[in-house]
Amino acid sequence: MTVDAQIMRQEEGGGVFKSDSTTFKNEVQIKLSGETKYTDYKIISINNDTTLIDTTLTIAKDYKFNYIRKDNFELLPFANQGQTYNKLGYNFNDNSLFPTIGANAKHYNYYNIEDVYYYDVPTPTSEFMYRTGMEQGQVLDGFLTLNTSRQLNIFIAYKGLRSLGKYRNSLASHGNFRTSVNYQSKNNFYSLKAHYMSFDLLNNENGGLTEASIAYFENDDPNYTDRGRLEVNYVDANNMFEGKRYFLDHNINLFSKENKSEKHNAELSDKLRDYNSTLKEIETLKKDTVSYLMKSKIDASPKRPSATKKEKDELAKTDLNKENPVINIKALGKVITLTKKDTLKLDSIHAIKIKKIDSLLIVAAGLKVDSSQFITIDKNANYGMKLGHTFMYETQHYRFKQAAVNPFFGEAYEDIIVDHTSYQKMNNEAYLQFEAPYVGILRAKANYFNYNYHYNSILYLDTQTIQDKLKGNAIAVGADWKTNFGKLYLNADASSILSGDLTGNSIKGSVMFKKDSVYSFKGFAEITSKTADFNKLLFQSDYKDYNWQNNFKNEQIKNVGVEFSYKNWASINASYNLIDNYTYFDENSLPAQANETLNYLKVTVSNSITFRKFTLDNTVMYQDVSSGESFFKVPEIVTRNTLYYSNYLFKGKPLYLQTGVTVKYFTAFNANAYNPLLSEFVLQNNQKIGNFPLLDFFANAEIRRTRIYLKVENFGASFTGRNYYSAPTYPYRDLTVRFGLVWNWFI
User: Fold this and answer.
1) Cα first-last separation, the chain
2) Which domains does the chain have, with CATH numbers?
3) Cβ count within 10 A of residue 538
4) Residues 17-57: tens digit of each pLDDT
């Protein structure tokens, strides 16, 4: 069912709404041509997968209540909100053929093309997320979306984050702006999705604690409970990742069997909705007419005798749905018979406009519509062809600045460090999509990718000349296919670079069997050959040890996996990965390529057990690196267990409460160290982190469409020991109280 909403502002001096004493002069009225349902508020991905705006409170919402708004089970956050994360697990699925700028530690608050959503809503809708920061600051993420018509939706959003942090020079200041447009013509001939995104992600960097400060921290020295007193390696550095993106995906429907039936049904639906709306208005006018007569001031003159109780009872029992209801009101001194020709007479002080019921009956009669005229659409009998085009242009800049040279990074060419990496990329894709029964949807596509990764000048060294840019293009072709046979769903995607300055290819496939919401099984596989990130191939810095140019081989990624989910029991996700020519940063923060095949297994099991009002939610991840453990570090076990209580409180159930404790634990391992100059994690073998519990207490509540979150993070810090780190020299956060909320507004 499609629902339209229109905002109507009252005219000065009159209007039928003025008869209502609860309506104010400047109040905005919303006129709906139908009844809205929660299923009408749709979120649409770039791949046309549709979900609904969800205002319920669940434990999954608690896991996602952070500044990146994603479940961070496989991530370990740093002390300040807005800083990076260390990885506890890796995902090598769904790889792109084209390389990125690198600086991967800055990408957690970056929106990829797949992260920007499009909407279709019957009424203006907004959402705001607020969460307190560390020491000073907060994060606020809000959006507003509305349909100007059934065809066009506009979305605008901004996420602002500023958090001072408890350690010196650890300020985080981020901004993310997104706006999108979703358009579908009335006859489905033309459709468009477009968005613009800009971002600036600034972090002050301190290099972690000094050796002396680490000792004060681990010994819980009372003189340093104020973490701002601990010495850090430097206090004059920052890095910034910023840029903007323009994206457009549009297509025309060359022909479609389904379109004619859909167009007929859409027009019929409009008429049926107007017909029902008109009849409803007629009934309202009839009732309002009598309501006015009953509520009008009665002349208490002795010439007019008062109505008896019996007459008042008869008036109350009068059937207003009759063709000509008769109302005998002795107090008014007359018998009133309402006919179709009677008009709605309101108080002259409040009403100017007069509506005639019989005119509405004429309109309703002229519509001549009923639901039997709808044409049943058989989705399995659809066929059609679309011609489409996708355009993307994006600029990215990565900067590292330091006011003075610091021996932490070695010698430098300049006294003041100002590193700047620029990357511009453009992708044009043309596609032809064919849909037919049993074949499903088959799309052929061709890409032209242009890139320019560059610095300001060529660097001449004694033993090497380092170029100032990697610039070129690539032409790729491919196809993707998806279909289903009943409850069996098949997907495949293949792409290959035919010519240009890059090489690579990819083939991906999946098969899924799904039985309603009871259980599902999915198997997937992928083989990809891709170029390494550009910052591993070319990098320039004012620090002498951070300049290189490499000619690495393509990374060869192979993986297979399964996903199984059974309602009220458990879900299992397992993947097995084989990677040749794996690239990484070694102990000296230099890019390297492995000669050994990385053999990596990851299995994640989740389940929940509920007894009355209590639930135990468990997630356990097991990882094994059978070859490549010298350059690929992960903990063997990561677990998260939450015991919580859920219930409605107070009479009428106005508040839904979830409160409990979450414990997260991972086994000790040589976690990668963080390098702020590169914004990358590098190998280290000197310090293990892990083998400590992270205990969080939470009390969350849902009041109508608002979710309120209160959390005490790491409340066990004082009795579990001060050995908790996010990365070597970077302590995890101490006991911290956080408050926030998510508020949805529907007009």
Assistant:
1) 19
2) 44-259+378-746 (2.40.170.20), 260-373 (no CATH)
3) 21
4) 333 333 334 444 445 555 778 889 999 999 999 999 999 99
